Structure prediction request, 223 residues.
Amino acid sequence: ETGVTQTPRHLVMGMTNKKSLKCEQHLGHNAMYWYKQSAKKPLELMFVYNFKEQTENNSVPSRFSPECPNSSHLFLHLHTLQPEDSALYLCASRSQETQYFGPGTRLLVL
Amino acid sequence: QKEVEQNSGPLSVPEGAIASLNCTYSDRGSQSFFWYRQYSGKSPELIMSIYSNGDKEDGRFTAQLNKASQYVSLLIRDSQPSDSATYLCAVTAQYSSASKIIFGSGTRLSIRP
Prediction:
């Protein structure tokens, strides 16, 4: 357990659905991240939030919409996704030097 | 040029031997270096961090850093089947103010009994 939780752990959605992924940490970290990991591919950084402000958007399609209401919570809102968006979505938070990952949400888009 | 490069493997090592994993990085300003272990279907788990040149040992793991050569490695002594996983090298990016860590694509390690 790293202290970073993610819900749901598994999600199946149709291309017309709207869903949200949630990430929570109570480690006192100020930076939070969303990563995408497709099968047999490296981690892809999607978004970075620092003190609730988005500081990085790594050319992510607008069908992914992040939200960071406070330093402890991070959401990823999903709408009109494509089958190629099926992947493991990982949240992470960072202290001074160390980054910890949540368990991930395994997403399948049908 | 990729910012963090690793051999994708698979690297096959007999049980009990030393596994050696290597990583090179392009940003000379990087100050912090990490090794993560990721089991199939699981999230990455931090196993080592190193900040200064030389060796850092933690149990069966030794991280080695050479900033002049922009090279960081991970040695696993007395390899066990449970060490079979993908190992990700990660480096802080100094050009970004956003606390950005850059990951390599990982080396798949297989320990054969």
In short: The interface with chain B takes residues 2, 31, 41-43, 45, 48, 50, 55-56, 88, 90, 94, 97-104, 106 of chain A (CB under 8 Å). The longest strand of chain A covers residues 18-25. Chain A has no helices and eleven strands.
